[in-house]
Amino acid sequence: MARSSNDSWDLASSVGTTATMVAAGRAMASAASGALIDDPFAAPLVRAVGVEFFTMMIDGELDLSVFGDASPERAEAMVNGMAVRTRFFDDCALASTAAGARQVVILASGLDSRAYRLPWPDGTRVFELDQPEVISFKTSTLAGLGAQPTATRRAIPIDLRDDWPAALRDNGFDPSARTAWLAEGLLIYLPPEAQDQLFDRITALSAPGSTIATEWAPGIVDLDAEKARAMSAPLRDHGLDIDMPSLVYAGQRTPVMDYLRSIGWQVSGTPRDELLARFALPTPGDAAPDGPLGEIVYVSAELSTGTPPATAR
Ligand SMILES: C[S@@+](CC[C@H](N)C(=O)[O-])C[C@H]1O[C@@H](n2cnc3c(N)ncnc32)[C@H](O)[C@@H]1O
Fold it and tell me: Whose CA is nearest to atom 9 of ligand 1?
């Protein structure tokens, strides 16, 4: 179903399905030999959501040809891609807290368990924002598993198209203190102007020394919807009700690196293959060509000067 301005979802429908999908990827990456990441909550969370396709995926019972081809190289590329993505955001957040930040804001937190699994310095507060059903499911499922946050966790159920800065402040966020912001796997689900507004709002809430970790998917600009739809057809044949082109906002949008630079951030971008090489993992090359979103660029940014030029819209 096409997106609308006030649509909402749980973890088994619409955009929420993508949160379960990436958590399944983290579960597989955590179980890989010589794993780069260890997310012990990913698999139980995915099982609790109860979408059979993802449960089969993490149990190794899914024929991976549904993702294009069933070659070991293709499967390895998928798992390694999720491993380096997770490590990138883990490392950015921990580097920011090592440099003094004691506020971490995870926008579109989905089934991200960083508030429960990373070794945060004493006094760290982790704010998680996502749709109400997503927040309440993760909170109650992890409580049921006996998981304890490793920081003070503030879960804020809200749509990121609404006034989330006010909700953040109401929950004790301090804009005068430096913050580590994470926006992982979010931007393609926001309309182009909402992406820019998100970063304006972040900037208006950021003290000098604050950091952002996010990513840029170059293929979103000229997304080939028919190709993308054809790629997800086998998933639907296996019972997974997902139609990626209808969940994302394709078309012209400002590359996030350019936008952040224009509003005063010092930005660096690392293409996925460079990240794989950094962790001594093979680059997929022809074994697993990029999907419709192209080669993802992982973006980190720091606000190092005084008053930012942007005003919150
Ligand atoms: C691909 S998932 C990524 C989740 C998490 N960051 C991760 O990497 O595991 C996309 C997430 O964005 C959230 N999201 C997208 N648009 C949103 C909106 N307008 N308001 C709140 N959450 C949103 C979804 O609920 C979902 O959890």
Answer: 112
E strand residue ranges, the chain: 103-107, 125-130, 152-157, 179-183, 211-216, 266-271, 297-302
Domain-located, residue 187: yes
Q: Is residue 229 part of a domain?
A: yes
Residue that wins the pLDDT comparison between 303 and 289: 303
**pTM of the predicted structure, to 2 decimals:** 0.95
Q: What is the pLDDT of residues 163-222, one digit of tens each?
A: 999 999 999 999 999 999 999 999 999 999 999 999 999 999 999 999 999 999 999 999
Identify the pLDDT of residue 310.
46
- Look up the domain containing 112 and give its range: 83-303
240 lines ligand 1 (CB under 6 A): no
Which residue's CA is the closest to the ligand 1 atom numbered 2?
Answer: 19
Find the CATH number of the domain harbouring 198.
Answer: 3.40.50.150
C-beta 110 within 6 A of ligand 1: yes
Amino acid of residue 266: Q
Q: Is 247's C-beta closer than 6 angstroms to any atom of ligand 1?
A: no
Residue 22 Cβ contacting ligand 1 at under 6 Å: yes
Categorize the per-residue pLDDT at 226 as very low, low, confident or very high, splitting at 50, 70 and 90: confident
Q: What is the structure's pLDDT at 62? A: 85
Number of domains in the chain: 1
In a domain, 134, yes or no: yes
pLDDT digits (tens, 9 = 90+) for 32-76: 989 999 999 999 999 999 999 999 999 999 877 777 766 777 788
Shortest-distance Cα residue to atom 11 of ligand 1: 108
Long-range contacts of residues 22-26, Cβ cutoff 8 Å, at least 24 apart: 22/82, 22/110, 22/111, 22/185, 23/54, 23/110, 23/111, 24/54, 24/57, 24/58, 25/78, 25/79, 25/81, 25/82, 26/82, 26/86
Q: Which of 189, 195, 212 should be mutated for ligand 1, with most atoms under 8 A from CB?
A: 189
Q: How far is the CA of 186 from the centre of ligand 1 (A)?
A: 5
Query: Within a domain: residue 278?
Result: yes
